[in-house]
């Protein structure tokens, strides 16, 4: 049996899980958001990384259903944290190219927000430049519709795509996430440090919020904070974990 065959029905068999990884405000140290990251708990193969099965699901279209389930699960979880009395944070969900092209994407998201009772401003969607660049006019239109709902938009893996600064200003996004490949050796590789600093400066001049991914050490954290990075995410703070593990890290409102 191939992985593709087994992916069929994995949702119905309850084999998909959503893990969460916090984003931290580098100045206050508070959690500002959680990124939802899907996992496939296969009955015999064990935990399968999305890096393995998302491309398959993307190719055969299963990603649309899986992605919608991740969105619904993540929005419901964020609402549950609010109802439990935790200080409101954003929930950040990755969109795939196939999902982004769905004609009913905006309606589906709106419906999930209504269904779960989550405010649009407590949801963030992560998109990548590479798939926005396909049909730029259409991408801009869809992003605008999502922004009009009040949803936050982040450009994920920034710096790795075919970054066209010309188009960047046309995409109505709120934040850039510096790809972890730059953060990884920011302390040892002057080129990575230069790219990181340039992305931070670019974000500032476009008045976008800037998040560093893949923060693993105190030195990286101190450096990024000093350079003016707003938020950080990475193993230094927490790896992606199930909701019940992350809840004790959240702050109570009162
Ligand atoms: O969590 P991990 O590092 O294994 O994720 C690997 C890749 O899978 C990352 O690029 C991440 O963005 C992507 N990914 C994780 N969860 C989702 C999801 O729910 N939808 C989509 N489209 N991609 C995801
Ligand atoms: O492409 P995207 O940024 O969505 O990828 C998120 C993935 O990055 C998650 O699957 C997560 O497992 C991984 N990740 C998160 N923090 C770190 C980190 O500090 N170091 C490394 N190597 N990977 C990380
Ligand atoms: Mn992401
Ligand atoms: Na990334």
Give the structure's gist in a few sentences.
The chain is α/β, with parallel strands linked by helices and 254 residues long. The chain has helices at residues 3-7, 50-60, 62-83, 97-101, 105-116, 129-132, 136-149, 165-168, 180-184, 190-205, 218-226, 243-246; strands at 16-25, 31-42, 46-48, 90-94, 123-128, 152-158, 175-178, 209-212, 231-232.
**Main structural class:** alpha/beta
Number of helices: 12
Q: According to CATH, what is the topology?
A: TIM Barrel
Hetero groups:
guanosine-5'-monophosphate, manganese (II) ion, sodium ion
Major β-sheet strand ordering: 1-2-4-5-6-7-8-9
Order of helices and strands: HEEEHHEHHEHHEHEHHEHEH
The name of the CATH architecture is Alpha-Beta Barrel
Distance between the termini: 53 Å
Total discrete domains = 1
Secondary-structure topology with pairs:
Elements: H1 3-7, E1 16-25, E2 31-42, E3 46-48, H2 50-60, H3 62-83, E4 90-94, H4 97-101, H5 105-116, E5 123-128, H6 129-132, H7 136-149, E6 152-158, H8 165-168, E7 175-178, H9 180-184, H10 190-205, E8 209-212, H11 218-226, E9 231-232, H12 243-246
Parallel strand pairs: 2-4, 4-5, 5-6, 6-7, 7-8, 8-9
Antiparallel strand pairs: 1-2, 1-9, 2-3
Helix pairs in contact: 2-3, 3-5
The protein binds guanosine-5'-monophosphate (2 copies), manganese (II) ion (MN) and sodium ion.
Sodium ion binds at residues 156-157, 177, 179-180, 213.
